[in-house]
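Friendly challenge for the regulars: who can give me the structure tokens for this chain first? No prize, just bragging rights.
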Amino acid sequence: MKTYRAGIVGCGNIFPMHAITIKQLENVELVAVCDVKEDRAKKEANKLNCKYYLDYKEMIDEEDLDVVHICTPHHMHAPISIYASNAKKHVMSEKPISITMKDAKAMIEASKKNQVLLGVIFQNRYNTGSKLIKETLDSGELGKIISGKLQVTWKRTDEYYSKSDWKGTWDKEGGGVVIDQAIHTMDLMRWFVGSEIDYVEANITNRTHEINEVEDMAEGIIKYKNGVLTTFYAINYYSYDAPVEIELHCEKGIVKMIGDKAVIEFNNGKKIIADNDPGEVFDYGNGVKSYWGTSHVKQIEEFYQSVAKGEQTVICGEEATKTQEMICAIYESGKKRKRIYI
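First reply, four minutes later:
Bragging rights claimed.
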């Protein structure tokens, strides 16, 4: 069995999810990490017994890597991904794929041109409840989807933003609560509905975070081309991180997602409840926040399986770009105060 050599760019908050997962995979070796802050890069390299770099280009040029993991601020996803792809390295990037559609398309073009894989993390699709809902909806047991709603009410303090030089900015983060927190839930909704989007109408505003340029509240509707109309509400000034909520009303029942738990209620009285099996939940430790979900390991493992088989990964650049197109449309609608057709 081939052992794949991996490098990680970015040693911030999301870094442990990738580093610890890689260490658990039998056929993957973490050979290098990279961060612009030397103390942080050196600390992680010492813990993980690997090399460290301050320049991602130097790491990619000097190390014989198979895969580059991107765990950096959003605005750096595109340049790192394109550079790695041009060096014939597969890329596993954290969400979002980028902060603009132009960059997302350039990333996809580079991966195709160099015949390497581009995967983007949307780990909540791999949760037990999410998979059950998707399988049930696709089976037709519930009939057509009629309408839906989602809600994300989390808490991010001014301190959360003041510790970062990129969070809360349009040019580096690409937005606020929508692109950073609600994006996972909005991606799930789009995946569940299983249709291209027709149009978006949104309202975005900053109610409480004076330190920020970006929105801390967003609300609106998303109309899909299969006729399904969904509403969304997202804030990050709630009193705590409440479980995310998704609800879809169908011809023959209702599906609900509360946190990681799925509830499927059929009109005939049948009810199914599913959550992550405690035996399947990966304990990342190291203070990794639970609301990131438990399925990074499943998605990253699937990515390496795709690399080994030479097959397209499930959540590829094109799939992630569909969600990014929705996010960009929400921002365009909110800023222009009009309906945006996709």
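The CA atoms of residues 278 and 294 lie 10 Å apart. The mean pLDDT is 95. Your move, everyone else.
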